[in-house]
Design brief:
By secondary structure, this protein is of the alpha/beta class. Strands 8-7-6-9-10-11-12 form a seven-stranded parallel β-sheet, sandwiched between helices. The protein has helices at residues 16-22, 34-42, 77-82, 95-110, 113-121, 145-156, 184-190, 210-216, 232-240, 282-297, and strands at residues 4-8, 26-30, 47-50, 64-67, 86-88, 137-141, 160-164, 178-179, 193-196, 220-223, 246-249, 269-271. The two termini are 37 Å apart. It folds into two domains: 4-93 and 279-297, 3-Layer(aba) Sandwich (Rossmann fold), CATH 3.40.50; 95-271, NAD(P)-binding Rossmann-like Domain (Rossmann fold, 3-Layer(aba) Sandwich), CATH 3.40.50.720. Helix 1 packs across helix 10 (282-297), helix 4 (95-110) crosses helix 6 and helix 7 packs parallel to helix 8 (210-216).
């Protein structure tokens, strides 16, 4: 079988490079910079493994983008369809890992671990009584694979759950009460905790703004979905006004989060650097999808996690 030239973006999750190096049938270009990505594509690489997209990557040789993330909002779908470039995602690969990270953020807020870590820096011994999760009301916004994994864990922790899904009639899972986005404000008013697992909304529209934060009141919010889902100005205002008790953020509207953002300085905020899906198990799980799709790319099998959008329909 003819070797397939694959270029790997320099920002990659753990284990991906090791998997690709051990995979027969490909010639791997492990780029050290985005300039090297473009150089490899100009030299004829047909496959780009990445979760970062730049329009400059759309070179004539590119035939397949093996996405390393679940989201697709960053890709020029219409242009890819017009050029017959296949796009696949890593949907489902990191669902369990992200769900665990969501709980880590939530516990850091409710048990006040974030504040305690700040006290460690100043060598300050201060008892900070936390809250218990059992019996709390959890709203999960986005009931895809990650949201479902969050819900399974939340049930074991004794939380009461309402889910929000774009089309509740298409949901089949463990949550017994699922509402549409038109009920989001009412769900926020009911909840003690709002946990965002949704992909980016159309046109990167905020789902959680001033009105929803007012409804949530003295609760907590965790975002492991997309930074664009929350109006950050409204979030900062709710936190500084003392209404919202805390925010756990793995994603922000601008990444990296600018040094001047007030979110860095608020003691009731816990921030991680968009690494909820990273773990040593990521590489083999993503690699299993890549290997199956490599067979499809060479004409032997069906694609999985392929984004199918007609050129005229893509946003």
């Amino acid at each position: 079988m003819e070797q397939v030239d694959v270029v790997l973006h320099p920002n990659r999750p753990p284990g991906v490079e090791a998997f690709l190096r051990a995979l027969p049938g490909i010639t791997l270009h492990s780029a050290g910079s985005e300039q090297e990505v473009m150089q490899a594509l100009d030299a004829g690489a047909q496959v780009l493994a990445t979760f970062v997209w730049r329009d400059a990557f759309l070179r004539p040789s590119l035939r397949w983008i093996a996405g390393m993330g679940a989201g697709i909002e960053q890709y020029p779908l219409r242009e890819l369809a017009a050029r017959d470039v296949v796009l696949t995602t890593a949907a489902g690969v990191h669902a369990g890992c992200v769900a665990e990270h969501a709980f880590a953020l939530l516990l850091a807020l409710t048990r006040r671990v974030g504040e305690s870590v700040r006290n460690m820096i100043g060598q300050q011994w201060q008892a900070l009584p936390g809250e218990e999760l059992a019996g709390k009301k959890l709203a999960i916004v986005g009931l895809g694979r990650i949201g479902e994994e969050v819900a399974k864990r939340a049930q074991n922790w004794g939380l009461r759950i309402i889910g929000v899904k774009r089309d509740p009639t298409r949901y089949h899972g463990c949550v017994t009460e699922v509402r549409g986005p038109d009920q989001l404000a009412a769900v926020c008013e009911w909840a003690d905790i709002v946990l965002l697992c949704a992909p980016a909304a159309p046109e990167r529209r905020c789902l959680i703004g001033e009105a929803e934060l007012q409804c949530l009141g003295a609760g907590w919010i965790v975002n492991v979905g997309r930074g664009s889902l929350i109006d950050e100005n409204a979030l900062v205002h709710a936190l500084t006004a003392g209404r919202l008790r805390g925010a756990g953020l793995d994603v922000t509207a601008v990444e990296p989060l600018p040094a001047g953002s007030p979110l860095w300085r608020l003691p009731q905020v816990v921030i991680t650097a968009h690494n909820a899906g990273d773990s040593p198990g990521y590489g083999p799980r993503w690699g299993a999808i890549f290997e199956r799709n490599l067979a499809a790319f060479t004409g032997d099998g069906d694609w999985i996690n392929r984004v199918t959008v007609a050129a005229g329909d893509a946003p």
